[in-house]
Specification:
283 residues, two-stranded antiparallel sheet
């Protein structure tokens, strides 16, 4: 009986050791899963920053398989899937626009604005939809979209939305950000001119000219500092030989905007002269 009791105790001690060993093994497995999940999440975030949303989705989903109920991973998967969908809508709208199907392209971008709740992305989408409206001669809608895009930009200067890769602060202006602003002003200015609002259109073109010069100055300075990724569109000339702008000769894009401004001013002058002649004839 004593031997039987001793055997039972030995069995109990053995089970306890097995449980301890199993718990330790499970802990190691879980730690490995946590480490792998973190690595996958970090890599997914890097892919997302590079706009490689397909790869980001794959990594987030792999991490989610390890921890299916993790709320942050669930949200990350949903967010990246939404960005993939957003990219498909933008691509679809560009293809339609290239085929001169402006109404359909605008409709796709309208879907984007309704289903993608990321206001900082709406700036470029509104700018693109304004191009559709301008091409289809819906000038009022073009003006409204450009105005809305510009309002978004200025509203975000004080508090940029989370996840935005656009710099909204004047101290951190980039050619990409300024480019959206310039394009919005040009399209709104063009639409206003087609509506006969030449003075208002001229103001937008003058703002666009200022922005384009700023873009080229930033690129010029970057090119002189040896930044390989920056491409300067103008030409280098001798210091202070053109308008005192430190060796900067502006690109054909500046010249094009200047020509548009010249034509608008000529139309304003012609219109003013015409109005004067009409008044003289009436009197």
């Amino acid at each position: 009986m004593a031997l039987a009791t001793l055997d039972d105790r030995n069995q109990v001690d053995l089970n306890s050791e097995e449980e301890s060993s199993m718990a330790e093994s499970l802990k190691k497995v879980r730690n490995k899963q946590i480490l792998r999940s973190r690595i996958l999440s970090v890599r997914a975030g890097a892919y997302a920053a590079l706009h490689k949303y397909g790869k980001a989705r794959d990594d987030y989903e792999s991490a989610l398989e390890l921890f299916p109920t993790h709320p942050d991973l669930q949200k990350a998967v949903q967010d990246v899937k939404m960005l993939i969908y957003a990219g498909k809508l933008v691509k679809q709208s560009k293809e339609l626009f290239a085929k001169h199907k402006y109404f359909k392209a605008a409709s796709v971008l309208t879907t984007f604005l309704k289903k993608i709740p990321l206001p900082h992305l709406h700036i470029s989408v509104l700018c693109n939809r304004s191009a559709c409206y301008l091409a289809s001669r819906e000038y009022g809608k073009c003006v409204a979209d450009c105005t809305r895009a510009l309002n978004f930009f200025h509203a975000f200067k004080d508090q940029p939305p989370p996840g935005s890769d656009i710099h909204f602060s004047q101290e951190n202006d980039t050619p990409r950000t300024l480019g959206w602003l310039r394009t919005s002003h040009i399209r709104r200015g063009s639409a206003l001119c087609w509506q006969g609002k030449l003075e208002d259109g001229l103001k937008d073109y003058l703002m666009a000219l200022s922005l384009q010069k700023k873009i080229e100055k930033i690129k010029f300075v970057a090119s002189q500092s040896g930044e390989k990724e920056t491409k300067y569109e103008g030409e280098r000339i001798d210091i202070n030989t053109q308008d005192g702008e430190n060796g900067l000769k502006h690109s054909r894009q500046v010249a094009s905007i200047q020509q548009d401004i010249k034509r608008i001013r000529a139309e304003i002058s012609s219109s003013t002269a015409g109005d004067g002649n009409d008044e003289t004839e009436i009197s």
